Amino acid sequence: MAKHGYLKEFTKGIVKENPVLCLVLGTCPTLAVTTSASNAIGMGVAATAVLICSNAVISALRKVIPDKVRIPAYITIIAGFVTIVQMLVKAFAPAINDSLGIFLPLIVVNCIILGRAEMFAGKNPVLPSILDGLGMGVGFTAALLCMGIIRELLGSGSVFGVQLLPFKILIFILPPGGFFVFGMLIMLANKLNTRAGREVKTTPCDGCPMAANCSQKAEKCGEKEAAEHVD
Questions:
Q1: Rounded distance, CA 50 to CA 48, Å?
Q2: Helix intervals (H) in 12-164
Q3: I need a labelling partner for 209 at 20 to 30 A (CA). Which of 68, 70, 216, 223 fits?
Q4: Are strands 162-163 and 158-159 parallel, antiparallel or unpaired?
Q5: Burial 15-39 (b: 16+ CB within 10 A, else e)
Q6: What is the dihedral of CA 209, 213, 218, 220, to 10 degrees?
Q7: Distances (CA, A) of 111 to 75, 80, 88, 206
Q8: Cβ(39)–Cβ(96) below 8 Å
Q9: Residue (of 150, 143, 144, 196) closest to 171 by Cα position
């Protein structure tokens, strides 16, 4: 793979295929931990580390893992790295560990990580898989950080503990405010992709680990092809 190909694998997850704003994956931790910018960075860095390591190992073992047990094998590998990351966070950043709570170990079932393992790492060499994990992790972290900064600034008037605004709009640190900011950022990401002449994905099927065996996706694709044939 040429240098341009490596660069493409890294950059696609930042804007074009951002896992949160374009593929709409990982919405539960996105909405739950973005009440502050520091929590957003903590979750983003932890998920990125798991993405890179799990992608690398799964890619290296892709020809060894039997196809029938690939999903349980992927989850086991991911769970191992999540445990390591959780132990490191507890040891070196206990405040972040307390803030993230249950959402840190729940990285094991984060659909972004399992989706990249199934859709990319299980089918490609190690280096592109590492770059794919890094790019998706950076995109995930960037989306979380944007939400965290906006919600913390408007909800508490501060960012990273530094007071910047003399007023507070408490709804922004509550679930309704999270959904509002999330929707605005998705709209902005779609606008950026549209202006750049990119095709905006309106369904997360391509990032779903079960997409290949999904009957609903097959039916939708069949309906789309039929409609195009009629036209």
A1: 5
A2: 27-33, 37-60, 70-92, 94-100, 111-116, 126-156
A3: 223
A4: antiparallel
A5: bbbbbbbbbbbbeebbbbbbbbbbb
A6: -40
A7: 11, 16, 22, 12
A8: yes
A9: 150
Task: Choose among 47, 21, 70, 6: nearest CA to 188.
Answer: 21
Specify the pTM: 0.80
Q: How many residues does the chain have?
A: 231
Cα–Cα distance, 98 to 118 (Å, whole number)? 31
pLDDT for residue 208: 58
Q: Which residue has the tokens 């709409």?
A: 24
Asked if residue 166 lies in contact with residue 157, where contact means CB atoms within 8 angstroms, the answer is yes
Buried b (16+ CB within 10 A) or exposed e, 95-134: ebbebbeebbeebbebbbbbbbbbbbbbebeeebbbbbbb
Q: What is the pLDDT of residue 110?
A: 87
Paired tokens of 158: 């501060």
Contact (CB, 8 A) for 129 and 17: no
Residues of the chain with pLDDT under 70: 1-4, 196-231
Tokens in use for 82?
Answer: 């999540």
What's the pLDDT score for residue 200?
46
**Contact between 23 and 80 (Cβ < 8 Å):** no
What is the C-alpha separation between 102 and 99, in angstroms, rounded?
A: 9
